[in-house]
């Protein structure tokens, strides 16, 4: 078996007496579309935060691309290729689409927005970043929108820009935290299509509470319940698992 791109070992997060994430051993294979689901309070957001580095675990480790990243802050993980979806508030609304994408590319390369001495010494850097920015705009379907101010974009193009900002960090894997929260059925479908269109060659981990949505899009699903993994498998296998049905639907057979 090939080495998983992302692995957690005995990952645990306690908040006082509450064990929000309880000894989770998760392995995500390179290239797969994995979803992490679970009822309210199952520990999805806490797990997401442990993977991005926003939270430190009480115990256990996170390994990415064969490297222990447990102690690394979020921006270091992004630089190592563990991207995460940004909410719309991460768009700089007064800047153009191109400037937003370029800033993201630069931040991922250099860790901050200030040109360092080393950065200035590399004569090709600006050209490289500009070329990379253009590739990302093309790939995201925004090549005709580069000079538009982000705030003036239509809803669908704002979503494209969010994905472009993630893509600009050149991630091997993207963590998506409820990317369709608050959307209508039609917007949800369009956003999932967009994720497939733009990010299909990356490993994806979607954190989601909408079980119908994950059934449609995932290669494999991991079900969390009370902080622990309850079940794991293909959408068909998971949907037929009696324990999942009990946890998810409160014993009501759908
Ligand atoms: N900072 C915190 N301090 C104390 N308890 C917390 C904290 N964050 C989360 N919890 C608790 O940890 C448990 C897991 O919460 P988490 O938000 O990870 O679940 P979730 O699966 O994302 O739920 P939801 O679908 O409702 O967002 C819950 O009981 C929650 O109240």
From TrEMBL:
<dbReference type="GO" id="GO:0016887">
    <property type="term" value="F:ATP hydrolysis activity"/>
</dbReference>
<dbReference type="InterPro" id="IPR032823">
    <property type="entry name" value="BCA_ABC_TP_C"/>
</dbReference>
<keyword id="KW-0547">Nucleotide-binding</keyword>
<keyword id="KW-0067">ATP-binding</keyword>
<feature type="domain" description="ABC transporter">
    <location>
        <begin position="6"/>
        <end position="251"/>
    </location>
</feature>
<dbReference type="GO" id="GO:0005524">
    <property type="term" value="F:ATP binding"/>
</dbReference>
<dbReference type="InterPro" id="IPR027417">
    <property type="entry name" value="P-loop_NTPase"/>
</dbReference>
<dbReference type="InterPro" id="IPR017871">
    <property type="entry name" value="ABC_transporter-like_CS"/>
</dbReference>
<dbReference type="Pfam" id="PF12399">
    <property type="entry name" value="BCA_ABC_TP_C"/>
</dbReference>
<protein>
    <recommendedName>
        <fullName>Probable branched-chain amino acid transport ATP-binding protein LivG</fullName>
    </recommendedName>
</protein>
<dbReference type="InterPro" id="IPR052156">
    <property type="entry name" value="BCAA_Transport_ATP-bd_LivF"/>
</dbReference>
<dbReference type="InterPro" id="IPR003439">
    <property type="entry name" value="ABC_transporter-like_ATP-bd"/>
</dbReference>
<comment type="function">
    <text>Probable component of a branched-chain amino-acid transport system.</text>
</comment>
<keyword id="KW-0813">Transport</keyword>
<dbReference type="GO" id="GO:0015658">
    <property type="term" value="F:branched-chain amino acid transmembrane transporter activity"/>
</dbReference>
<dbReference type="InterPro" id="IPR003593">
    <property type="entry name" value="AAA+_ATPase"/>
</dbReference>
<dbReference type="GO" id="GO:0015807">
    <property type="term" value="P:L-amino acid transport"/>
</dbReference>
<dbReference type="Pfam" id="PF00005">
    <property type="entry name" value="ABC_tran"/>
</dbReference>
<comment type="similarity">
    <text>Belongs to the ABC transporter superfamily.</text>
</comment>
<keyword id="KW-0029">Amino-acid transport</keyword>
């Amino acid at each position: 078996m090939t080495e998983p791109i992302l692995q957690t070992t005995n990952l645990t997060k306690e908040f006082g007496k509450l064990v929000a994430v309880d000894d989770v051993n998760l392995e995500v294979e390179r290239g797969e579309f994995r979803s992490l689901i679970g009822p309210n309070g199952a520990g999805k957001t806490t797990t997401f935060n442990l993977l991005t580095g926003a939270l430190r675990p009480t115990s256990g480790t996170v390994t990415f691309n064969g490297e222990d990243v447990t102690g690394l802050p979020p921006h270091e993980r992004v630089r190592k290729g563990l991207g995460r979806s940004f909410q719309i508030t991460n768009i700089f609304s007064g800047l153009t689409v191109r400037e937003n994408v370029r800033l993201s590319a630069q931040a991922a390369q250099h860790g901050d927005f200030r040109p360092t001495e080393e950065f200035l010494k590399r004569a090709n850097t600006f050209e490289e970043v500009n070329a990379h920015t253009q590739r990302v705009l093309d790939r995201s379907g925004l090549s005709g929108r580069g000079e538009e101010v982000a705030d003036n974009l239509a809803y669908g193009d704002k979503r494209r820009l969010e994905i472009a900002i993630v893509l600009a960090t050149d991630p091997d894997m993207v963590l998506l935290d409820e990317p369709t929260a608050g959307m209508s059925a039609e917007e949800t479908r369009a956003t999932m299509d967009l994720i497939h269109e733009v990010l299909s060659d990356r490993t994806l981990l979607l954190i989601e509470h909408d079980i119908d949505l994950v059934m449609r899009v995932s290669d494999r699903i991991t079900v969390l319940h009370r902080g622990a993994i309850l079940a794991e498998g293909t959408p068909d296998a998971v949907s037929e698992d009696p324990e999942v049905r009990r946890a998810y639907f409160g014993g009501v057979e759908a």
